[in-house]
């Protein structure tokens, strides 16, 4: 009896201890919730005020607010770390939240945090204030900003020399002033990562996907799967452009200035030059948007109507009051479109919207972010973000796959007639491929370059050369004029100077088709995937909402599985969508006998002025060796501490679910980074959102 009493006494004591541990954990989380939300609002308001009015005073205020916020995030991280080390019996939910809050890559010294904030503000300002000027006949300078002037010129001009002027002018305006400061930023980011035992800042970024060292092989596998489709598109576009631009090579890389976009990432603007069947009515709805007197606000209202039709939320009144949907006449602002989350349902979009089809797509993309914010707004502080950054980017684009279907455009009055012929189908899929398939290699390579920079595999003296090796090797494009290390062409893209993740767009391009495929099944769609629209399908919308409401409360494979029944990213859906086009492209190439690939490159200039032909392999970019600690990196090697975690990563956990599979050893030494590409939320650049939790998949 005494032994039994002792057993019950010990059990009761253990329960009391567990209850106390849980209460302590909940209390700490509540404190972080209150202070974190307050900090988020203060920081975001300061950043919003600066991004929408680029003045020195507002820049100063935003830097101070961001620095104060970083101090809180570092304090919260240290408190969470102490809780996890002292209280081992926390519930899974409390422990996960604490781990999310703990993970960071902020430097410990305030002066270092301030230096990073200042550098990012400087780089963003250089980009946003960039102008390209030409002398007019009256000797005055006419200067063009990127948005909308240079963007429109790149999209609409068919003058080879004018396109070279704009392409080179933009890079001359913003690249060289960024170069030295970008090196400083890399050094400071790596210093912070090193202080928290990350090998380099790239490790910190990649780990938001919770895949350890498996992320890069998975991304490489996805690229390998879609590469044949891209190569067919590239070969076809080059063949058609050669008819218009006689200076082009018939079998080499395409000039980066000829693809209708400042970065050659979206080729839809040259649709008129490459349309497979020109006699079939065009699918562009820009003329009808203008004819029907659409305004930026009306475009946002149209986007809202689609989300509401499937049962998602309408925008709150404050959204319409506080968002900046058009560029102010007398202010300089960051025109790169972004969605913002200020907590408690205060959501906004900042965008210099033009009335055209491309911006209509962007409007849906940004509103997708906002729908995500609204769906998870009631979750705890640590869970208010996407399942992974690619999820966040994919939400709005999943909707646009429905919006862009000719049938839907006709139903909302933006197309006046519907052509269901095979020729019209190929035209439609070509336009979709110019938007999405053309983007695949660029979205894949930007962070490939950046991760190598963080790892020290690309030295500052090689920034530009290695950038162009990657762009030629993966995209099959080449600079129209010689480039040197006096240039800094990566800085011509907003995300480089702002230190915004870019691989999320590649992940999004894969995920959005997986999402679309599953939602179409729920909507009872019958027929080819490219014809599906989920407009007004409440069943599809409900499942979509459930995925959004989960935020980051569970590892992303669980969230993906809830919607799609799959636990891995797969290229099968995007390949199914474009299968009719790929078959047509192959047949067309066989008939017209033009080459595939871009085997040999023309070197643009040598010391003696002689142009030399060099084999593509000699310009192959440096191989991935991101796990190493290469030369030229001014930070310490990561300690093998696992950051206090002793948990399997996602692949291991998934393998353990399979009968007969043995455990594998994985590298857990990577952490997390909030994506700020087209999301500017109430999260600091460094705030971690993920941790390698054990999976509990059922």
Low-confidence stretches: 11-18, 602-617, 627-698
Overall mean pLDDT score? 86
Structural classification: mainly alpha
Spatial ordering of strands, largest sheet: 1-2
Quickly name the level 1 CATH class of the domain at 216-592.
Mainly Alpha
- Shape, please? globular
CATH topology label of the domain at 216-592? Neurolysin, domain 3
What proportion of the residues is helical, as a percent range?
A: 40-55%
Number of DSSP helical runs: 25
% residues in beta strands: under 5%
Radius of gyration: 26 Å
Largest sheet: 2 strands, antiparallel
CA-CA gap between termini: 41 Å
Secondary-structure arrangement, i.e. CATH architecture of the domain at 216-592: Orthogonal Bundle
Task: Walk me through this protein's architecture.
The protein is mostly helical and 698 residues long. Among the domains are: 1-103; 216-592, Orthogonal Bundle (Neurolysin, domain 3). Helix content is 54%, strand content 4%. It is built from 25 helices and eight strands. It has a two-stranded antiparallel ribbon with strand order 1-2. Helix 21 packs antiparallel against helix 22. Residues 11-18, 602-617 and 627-698 have low confidence and may be disordered.
